[in-house]
Write a structure and sequence with these properties.
The structure is a homodimer. Chain A is α/β, with parallel strands linked by helices and about 210 residues long. Chain A is built from six helices and eleven strands. At the A-B interface, strand 10 of A face strand 10 of B.
């Protein structure tokens, strides 16, 4: 059976995956780019932007696992656009005409709209569905490949709580945001169903992998 | 000038340094001993209990730094006893007649009582004081040696917020407690005043050191 995976989910030391005050000009609120500097510096990220260069150390070793084997993504409404994007019929995501997904991409929203075909293989589908229903649809669209849960944190948390995630990679950044949206709320005893392995890299990031126990 | 240090402060992945429901038979609430298993296994901890054996790897390398150079400890009322100990005139801490402090030890409480001299060099002093006042008194008692802030988490947080801590070692344990007392609340941007270095060990613990920037 194909797997449901989370990659490159960055959190602060105090557990916030996004800051306070998300807006069009601040997708991560007061966190700015600080949660993702480690990722932006990697060769993986450079290549996504058709740039050469970037680091090839351990951080890149985690980052590059984002795409291989993935056949569909599921994301929350909060990742797709700033608060209120549902009122803008022309909103097509943050990522321009050729988004970095290159697969069917399911956006969870209580106000679905018709699907949008983008360049590069990404098609946006809008779903009002439970996590389990969304996984079933995405799995079908992925045609045997894996499904990535793209975030944000409340979506990842919901899918974790329902036991729908097989593998998760979290990058813990040594900053304290103090406020925002926490990843870990309501996930008591997650270690009973996942093998958790931490590894710190010389850039100060601690990568945590969660592998579902069978 | 002598330093103010924190050692072996254990937290869960979701940032709780103690669980919910602290009581006489459960000093760390529903966390039980899970936050401290890494410490109990070390040669340092065995030696404190006059036992031989224990691990000598990286975890022990952090653990053993607890005592050298320390001339006094400051702890909160919540570390000294279960809720309500102030109503028991005979309460002398959790640690028996020969406590593991071996120095003057200051307990912060709004209901001070006369000092108690224990075996092995520990004398308990009870202080109704601000963090800065407590550090001044402990520093004097330490006679040039360093002062350890012994916890619990709200006390460490208060001293951090006032910029009174020079060095802190936190051991992050890969479990999710879900509830209890958080260490990180109200400490936004702590990375601006501390150099933070994480290192994960093969036991799954991530040790984080905070060194005040000068």
């Amino acid at each position: 059976m194909s797997e449901v995976r989370v990659h490159n989910l960055s959190i602060s030391l105090d557990g916030f995956a996004t800051g306070e005050g998300q807006a069009l000009e601040a997708p991560f609120g007061h966190a700015g780019e600080r949660l993702h500097e480690w990722l932006v510096g990697t060769r993986f990220f450079h290549a996504e932007d058709n740039l050469s260069g970037g680091t090839q150390g351990a951080d890149n070793g985690f980052a590059v696992q984002h795409n291989p084997g993935i056949g569909a993504e599921i994301m929350g409404a909060g990742k797709f656009g700033p608060p209120g994007w549902q009122d803008d019929p022309d909103w097509k995501g943050w990522w321009g005409p050729n988004p970095p997904f290159h697969t069917p991409t399911f956006i969870l929203t209580h106000r679905p709209r018709p699907s949008i075909e983008m360049e590069g293989g990404t098609t946006y589908h809008f779903l009002d569905a439970t996590p389990a229903e969304a996984v079933a649809q995405a799995r079908e669209a992925a045609a045997g490949a894996d499904v990535r849960i793209g975030g944000g944190p409340t979506v990842v948390r919901d899918f974790l709580a329902e036991g729908l995630i097989d593998y998760m990679h979290v990058a813990q950044v040594p900053i304290l945001l103090g406020r925002g949206v926490r990843l870990w709320d309501g996930l008591e005893s997650l270690e009973q169903t996942y093998t958790i392995e931490p590894v710190s890299t010389p850039t100060g990031i601690t990568h945590l992998t969660f592998t579902a126990k069978r």
